[in-house]
Design goal:
By secondary structure, the chain is an alpha/beta fold. The chain has helices at residues 13-22, 27-40, 77-82, 101-124, 135-143, 164-171, 204-216, 227-236, 260-269, 279-282, 289-301, 310-326, 334-347, 375-383, 388-408, and strands spanning 44-48, 87-93, 129-131, 147-154, 174-178, 219-221, 242-246, 272-275, 353-355. The chain has two domains: 13-284 and 332-408, TIM Barrel, CATH 3.20.20; 287-328. It has 15 helices and nine strands. Strands 1, 2, 3, 4, 5 and 6 form a six-stranded parallel beta sheet that branches. Strands 7-8-9 form a three-stranded parallel beta sheet. Strand 1, helix 3 (77-82) and strand 2 (87-93) form a beta-alpha-beta unit. Helix 2 (27-40) packs across helix 14 (375-383) and helix 8 (227-236) runs parallel beside helix 9. It is globular.
Length: 411
């Protein structure tokens, strides 16, 4: 099924320049060209947190949900089809908790449960979706007309300090591991730990983690990592690395984003940055101390989403949604997303950028609020003069290339 395409923004200055040379396209011609390209290529989203909903017996991935519903989420298989999204990396996310034996064991069990939930959802929908472990799996499933489920792990915390867990998680299906999340762990420093750096990059154990991930054929994901961790991991890794859901620091000075020198290093490494569509990574937020204070209080109340029951998780989600309604932010747009893509292309090149939405983990913007609207990104890319070959690289070709190289370098 072709994607539902929505109203797009005004022609950008860049697009005007490009089309002045090649002949102006009408808006309808732009949309039709984008529709055709979007249908013909493999489209991949490298990060969404939808598995956090899989413990809820009322959530069915085979049913279409209304994106306006507080508990409906932004991703399900019918809306993936509507939005022309072929593949998504479903995140095994565990928030950072205590780094002791008890905390590590809880994190491990939580991760295993999420792995099992993802496998269950795929098994319950064999005519709709299939699990992919390699790029070849993805292209085969695409030909079969199925939605493609990859698995990624967000936060290496469940590894604890046990390298053998890496092989277990690989065998359970993950194909990347985000080394850390919002706080430091035993592997490395986070970009957003309130106490600052602990190791000034990778820990000694973290070096072994990266080396073992290389050996197993797991992509090293540096989203959430500190700048020093990024450079350490690039130096240690013998395979290309990724940032599964990040943006450009030069356009939005969020510590989660990659600076230009980091983008150049990523290109030298052969890796790829997957563009996040979360508001505060795309545009500078307008300061609102009341909102910030209220949000900080909720994070404390719900233990930064660590070890919550399903009831607690639903309450937390509802309270955060109410908070956002009370203190609405100026929303980023599809144009902002493609501004960041333009920047990566300019600094690092077309071979080093992709899409990682962070849907159901905060992602969602004006014009691409859920997975059914993803065709709008392709419309804006066409509007700015990107070729079909370039769009194919951005939407799936680059990340599939990296995954293939990482797996080929495994020993």
């Amino acid at each position: 099924m072709r994607p539902i395409l929505f109203k797009s923004s005004l022609l950008s200055l860049v697009a005007m320049t490009l089309f002045s040379c090649s002949g102006q396209m009408s808006e309808e011609e732009i949309k039709q060209k984008a529709l055709n390209i979007h249908d013909q290529i493999l489209t991949v989203d490298t990060h969404n947190d939808t598995p956090m909903r899989f413990n809820n017996p009322d959530f069915d991935m085979s049913e279409r949900h209304d994106a306006s519903g507080r508990r409906s989420g932004k991703v399900d298989f019918p809306r993936m089809k509507e939005g022309g999204l072929d593949a998504a990396f479903f995140a095994v996310f565990v928030g950072q908790g205590p780094r002791d034996a008890e905390g590590n064991e809880r994190a491990y069990k939580r991760a295993v449960q999420t792995f099992e939930n993802i496998h269950r959802v795929v098994a319950e929908n064999p005519d709709i979706a299939g699990l992919a472990l390699t790029p070849e799996d993805a292209y085969r499933l695409e030909k079969e007309g199925k939605r493609i489920v990859f698995i990624g792990m967000e936060n290496g915390y469940p590894i604890g300090e046990d390298l053998s867990k890496l092989k277990e998680f690989h065998d359970r299906g993950t194909r990347y591991i985000t080394l850390c999340h919002s706080s430091n762990n035993s592997i490395c420093d986070s970009s957003t730990d309130r106490n600052g750096p602990e190791f000034n990059g990778l820990s000694d154990f973290g070096v072994k983690v990266v080396e073992e991930m290389n050996r197993l054929g797991l992509m090293v994901d540096l989203s959430h990592a500190s700048d020093d961790t990024f450079y350490d991991a690039i130096d240690v890794s013998k395979a290309p690395v990724i940032a599964s859901h990040s943006c450009c620091y030069e356009l939005c000075a969020n510590p989660r984003n990659l600076k230009d020198d980091m983008l150049r290093k990523l290109a030298e490494n052969g890796g790829v940055m997957q563009m996040c569509i979360l508001n505060n990574y795309l545009v500078e937020p307008v300061e609102n101390p009341e909102r910030d204070s209220a949000e900080a209080a909720l994070r404390i109340k719900y233990r930064n989403f660590q070890d919550l029951s399903e009831e607690e998780r639903n309450k937390a989600r509802d309270e955060f949604n109410k908070l956002r309604e009370k203190y609405p932010e100026k929303r980023a747009t599809v144009k902002d997303v493609v501004d960041h893509i333009d920047h990566v292309v300019e600094v690092a090149g077309i071979d080093h950028v992709g899409i990682g939405t962070d849907f159901d983990g905060g992602g969602g913007i004006e014009g691409c609020n859920d997975v059914s609207e993803m065709g709008n990104i392709t419309i804006e890319l066409v509007r700015r003069g990107y070729s079909k070959k370039d769009i194919q690289k951005i939407w799936g070709g680059n990340i599939m290339r990296v995954l293939k190289e990482v797996q080929e370098l495994a020993t």
